């Protein structure tokens, strides 16, 4: 039985998280749909995703300095207010180049806001309830992003109203922390990326996170554009984008449990190969029925959105417990760099071929992951089952920063305080 009184401070933070992620999900889907309606070039639509990812990675590096200077409450207020300002400015000035710049600012502010929330949740969590808090955070993450995306179905993409709703959600995210009387968490620690160390720890996980970022970045940025160009309705596009993520969340645990029983790299190969096959099928079949498209893309998401958690779990099998935060945070940054590349590759293929060429970009990344993982299987023995960390599901990479690793129940508790 959950003791609601003990979790009251956590629920307050999670309410702010819910509004923030709903705003992010709504804004992230609204922009490509409106851009497609306005006739923006495919290259520009892809660069919006690259700009967001670049801003997010940059925010992971520089946000801790802002938080240390201004404090958690004021810094979070600045980040959320900046998100609202950017959303409203996007609705006021419809211009593809202006939107690219604004997306970079949005990525930066979202990284800062999430780092504040994740560090605050970590401070509120105890040794006894850390797993529950982490699970609640994941549930709120997926549900809120999906809810934000589904709002598209109830609005008119061609007007400014949805931009206003996005701004309102960003402002609502401010309230729970603005009125909080709880003590502030400890200052955020600086983020660093040791690529050489990550690769030495696990070559497969390092390459996997980069390639998974390429595929997920391409889909996350251009999936809505693909749906609009093949002629399915706005409601179907919103459902398609949401179900891809939900299917991935639902499949994480069964796929993860399977990886606990065998070499995780075999499961990584199987899931990556399934993604590639579904992507090639969509390219070859060129489906136009909304229901068929949604079913195929949900099958794609069921495997695609399990890969990152598998890669992190495999890396942690090789890492020392005290290195969990460094390894997980570094892999997330590699994933971020991949999401900067993916939209450009996807946009290039979609611009020169048909809309389904988006899945050629994702399939290419997944086939490369399959090939490299098989190569590494032949060069490195698997970790013995009794030395592996138990698989844990991960929050959506769209709503996680290196600070989230400190909240993960696998992190040794002395690292979190």
Task: Describe, in plain words, how this protein is organized in 3D.
The chain is an all-alpha fold and 417 residues long. The chain contains 15 helices and no strands. Helix 2 packs antiparallel against helix 3. The two termini are 27 Å apart.
In summary, what is this structure?
This protein is an all-alpha fold and about 425 residues long.
Q: How large is the radius of gyration? A: 20 Å
Sequence of secondary-structure elements: HHHHHHHHHHHHHHH
- Poorly predicted ranges: none
Structural class: mainly alpha
Share of helix, binned: over 70%
Number of helices: 15
> Describe the biggest sheet?
none
Number of strands: 0
The first-to-last residue Cα distance is: 27 Å
> In percent terms, what proportion of residues is strand?
under 5%
Shape: globular
Mean pLDDT level: 85
Short descriptors:
single chain, globular, 417 residues, mainly alpha
How is the topology of this model organized?
Layout: H1 8-37, H2 42-70, H3 72-92, H4 96-124, H5 130-151, H6 161-178, H7 195-201, H8 203-230, H9 234-261, H10 264-285, H11 290-304, H12 307-318, H13 324-352, H14 358-377, H15 404-407
């Amino acid at each position: 039985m959950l003791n609601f009184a003990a979790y009251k401070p956590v629920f307050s933070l999670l309410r702010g998280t819910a509004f923030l992620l709903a705003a992010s999900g709504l804004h992230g889907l609204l922009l490509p749909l409106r851009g497609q309606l306005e006739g923006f070039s495919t290259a520009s639509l892809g660069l919006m995703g690259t700009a967001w990812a670049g801003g997010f990675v940059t925010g992971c590096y520089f946000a801790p300095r802002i938080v240390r200077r201004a404090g958690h409450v004021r810094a979070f207020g600045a980040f959320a207010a900046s998100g609202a300002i950017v959303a409203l400015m996007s609705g006021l000035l419809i211009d593809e180049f202006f939107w690219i710049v604004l997306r970079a600012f949005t990525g930066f502010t979202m990284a800062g806001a999430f780092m504040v929330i994740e560090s605050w949740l970590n401070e509120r969590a105890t040794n006894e309830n850390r797993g529950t808090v982490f699970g609640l955070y994941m549930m709120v993450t997926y549900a809120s992003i999906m809810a934000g995306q589904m709002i598209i179905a109830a609005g008119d993409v061609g007007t400014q109203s949805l931009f206003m709703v996005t701004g309102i959600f960003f402002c609502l995210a401010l309230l729970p922390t603005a009125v909080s009387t709880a003590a502030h968490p400890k200052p955020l620690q600086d983020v660093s990326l040791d690529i050489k160390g990550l690769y030495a720890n696990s070559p497969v996980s390092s390459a996997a996170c980069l390639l998974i970022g390429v595929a997920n970045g391409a889909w996350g940025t251009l999936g809505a554009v693909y749906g609009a160009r093949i002629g399915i309705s706005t409601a179907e596009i919103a459902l398609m984008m949401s179900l891809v993520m939900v299917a991935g969340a639902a499949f994480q645990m069964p796929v993860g449990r399977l990886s606990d029983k065998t070499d995780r790299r075999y499961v990584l190969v199987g899931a990556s190969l399934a993604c590639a096959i579904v992507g090639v099928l969509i390219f070859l079949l060129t489906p136009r029925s909304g229901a068929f498209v949604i079913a195929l893309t949900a099958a794609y998401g069921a495997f695609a959105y399990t890969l990152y958690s598998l890669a992190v779990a495999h890396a942690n099998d090789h890492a020392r417990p005290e290195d969990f935060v460094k390894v997980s945070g570094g892999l997330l940054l590699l994933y971020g760099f991949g999401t900067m590349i993916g939209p450009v590759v996807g946009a290039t293929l979609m611009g020169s071929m048909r809309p389904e060429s988006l899945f050629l970009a994702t399939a290419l990344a997944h086939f490369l992951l399959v090939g490299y993982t098989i190569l590494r299987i032949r060069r490195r023995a698997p970790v013995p089952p009794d030395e592996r960390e138990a698989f844990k599901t991960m929050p959506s990479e769209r709503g996680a920063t290196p600070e989230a690793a400190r909240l993960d129940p696998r992190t040794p508790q002395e690292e979190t305080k």
